[in-house]
Amino acid sequence: MNKMAKGAIASGVGVVLLVGGGGTLATWNQAQTASMGSIVSGDLNLEVNSATNIGKWTNAAGTVVDVKAYKVVPGETLTYTQDLKVTLTGDQMAAKLAVTGTGVNTTFLDKNVVVAPTTIKDGVKAIAADDVLTPSVNGHVVTASTTFTFKTSTDARDGAGAKSYEFGGVGYKLVQQAPPAPNSL
């Protein structure tokens, strides 16, 4: 085979490799920016509304009590009530109010104290403890109430003497609920 034929074959193989391997041949393409606009985030916030209520404790009779000096006995119920300002903005915003820190700083046994789910009032409208809050309460001052019941079924002297329940770590939090998943039925 002569040099010309070998050169032509080598050139042909090179061209095939360039074309087959993606080489330098270009295809047309076009890019265009879209006018999508911008988006702004919503908000979720919870504040103690000390202007209207700094929080208070009442017993089952509705009498305001000072928990620092109060001596609780089995069968009693104490309720803490606090006004909270709620911020909930966002087209799909939903949240639940939860009580935090119960049972953390206590020498009472769990079997002797029951913490009821927190109830909420928006004005005069009651909201169940497991209800989801929506932007319809945005900017409202809601009243949260949490009840601690010291059970009558306490055994012998469980909880007697110097048992204590430190309420300083008890608080409230808003927990956002995830929006529905796309295409969920």
From TrEMBL:
What top-level branch of life does the organism fall under?
A: Bacteria
This chain belongs to the protein called Alternate-type signal peptide domain-containing protein
* Species for this entry: Arthrobacter terrae
Lineage of producing organism? Bacteria, Bacillati, Actinomycetota, Actinomycetes, Micrococcales
